[in-house]
Amino acid sequence: MNNIYRILSASSLWAGSYARKFMFVAVAGICLPLLGMAILLAWAPFPLTPFSIFTTALLCALPAVVLACRWLKGLLQPVVHTNTALHDYRLSRQVPHLPLHYTDEAGELMRGVQITVTELNDLLDEKQILSELIAHDLKMPVVNIRLMTGLLPAVVHNESQLQEVIENIHLSLKEQEDLLQQVADLIRQHDSISTSMKRLPSSLNNCLTHAIRNQQPTAGHKQVRILFQPLHDYELLIAPEMFQQALKNIINNAIKFSHSGSAIHIQTGHTEEEVYIDIADEGIGFTEAQGATLFERLKKGQKGTAGEESTGLGLYLTRKILEGHQATITAASEGPGKGARFRVSFCRH
Q: Residue 339's pLDDT is what?
């Protein structure tokens, strides 16, 4: 910010009024020539003539005009900076860093623009996340339904197995319909994910059971066992469909990087501070450097054990959904070939 605006804003006399700052500059521009004329009239060492008075007035007025123009330009810098910030954001979505501590009208303008642009940027990020959620997770039920319909010829003559496959198809479609409806509701709203999700008291075991059942076709196709033996249940205040989608993403990730014939172990537990879910696989694991970037957006990792592609969105979206529930997710591995463990934690207080 230009020095003159900072200097005047530091004084209690001018800090709260943009108009008083302009008045000061205007008065200074008028008073400097008058001061020069007063000094000339009072202490002129030579006889005063019309020419000397005119010359002195001109010599005093020109610097005063130049100085006043520079000060006026400095006073307009808050408006210029604000306009530049809006222009940069419109062209490149560069979030500005306008000062928030000035108290006059120009300061309120900068503060209002900064807060508004920051909130708008956060909202656009939330909408982008929801769009990516739809694009990413629409594939999951399609794959499951494709795998289940592939089982139909083999079970068409076994009524109980046929009924189970049909029920799984219906369940997968219903869960995806519920998820898409909630995402659509969030998109229509203007709040963030964390404030917009409709939370309900929900059974943690039920959420895990639904997520596991949804991923069983993918696990069965790859001959990976999902082992879950709940000992205790916990009631959490969550948005069930969104939370289950996060669990599905973690389990799907574990399946992707598991070897055929291996198992995925899921358990729940608690400490004095938290309720947690551990999802551990016996797959390819990862290095410490890889672990540091697992939850980054569009950070593509290695392919799955059966050549599955990685979009770089699954774990990132999972983290964002869990953050919306005030939950955290961490990942750990003892190294390549030694499996991975993901922990989802909810604070108990």
A: 93
CA-to-CA dists, residue 139 to 3, 101, 133, 216, angstroms: 57, 48, 10, 15
In SS3 terms, 13-67 reads as CCCCCHHHHHHHHHHHHHHHHHHHHHHHHHHCCCCCCHHHHHHHHHHHHHHHHHH
| Pairing of the two strands 263-270 and 225-228 | parallel
* Residue 283 neighbours by CB under 8 Å, 6+ apart: 254, 257, 258, 259, 262, 305, 339, 340
Determine contact, residues 215/145, Cβ cutoff 8 Å.
no
pTM attached to this predicted model: 0.58
pLDDT at 196 over 70: no
User: What pLDDT was estimated at residue 66?
Assistant: 82
Q: How far apart are CA 8 and CA 273, in angstroms?
A: 51
Encoded tokens for 236? 């959490």
What's the rounded Cα separation, in Å, for the pair 75 and 70? 9
343 DSSP β-pair partners: 278, 330
In this structure, are residues 264 and 258 in contact, taking their beta carbons and an 8 Å threshold?
yes
Question: Which residue has better confidence, 229 or 281?
Answer: 281
Q: Which two tokens stand for residue 168?
A: 């799984």
Of 38-42, 80-84, 228-232, 287-291, give the lowest mean pLDDT range.
38-42
